Amino acid sequence: MQLEQDLEHLxxxxxxxxxxxxxxxxxxxxxxxxLAATPAELRRAxxxxxxxxxxxTYRPGGWTVRQVVHHVADASINGFIRAKLTLxxxxxxxxxxxxNEWVTLPDSKLPVDASLKLLEGVHERLDTLLRSLxxxxxxxxxxxxxxxLNTLDRLLAYFAWHGRQHTAHITSLxxxxxx
Length: 179
Prior knowledge:
Elements: H1 2-11, H2 25-46, H3 51-54, H4 65-88, H5 99-102, H6 112-132, E1 141-144, E2 148-151, H7 152-177
Antiparallel strand pairs: 1-2
Helix pairs in contact: 2-6, 2-7, 4-6, 4-7
């Protein structure tokens, strides 16, 4: 039982994603700020790591630190596109992406700085976009093939959590390893 709890904590160091559909303006603003902070937080998390450390998995059966950084950039690009589609189309159907396959592609072996720079640009644009929206825009929705109808508010909540979650994978590994 303890082993299962330990493995669960390694997989979800900040807890599983949850969302309640009653977002206050203050909570929405907090999520936008968390999303905006993701690139700098992730950069700090990997700062000074060697290639060997970057190629270490954050948990048994998990991705390497390098793959995690590239994944966060991949996911953020997809999130940005989903937000833009939601704002310009009526309940668009968005695509999924095979994240476990994407992290095995050759670009996921690049130095992490490539994805950190990409992440900074995407998040700067997303931050500007989200801060400019009227409150009612956050109730606009898209359809995801696996999770169904999702609002822009839920997308924001998810990606704020997602950045913190993956950053915590790296920082908790660093703490455990004494890096």
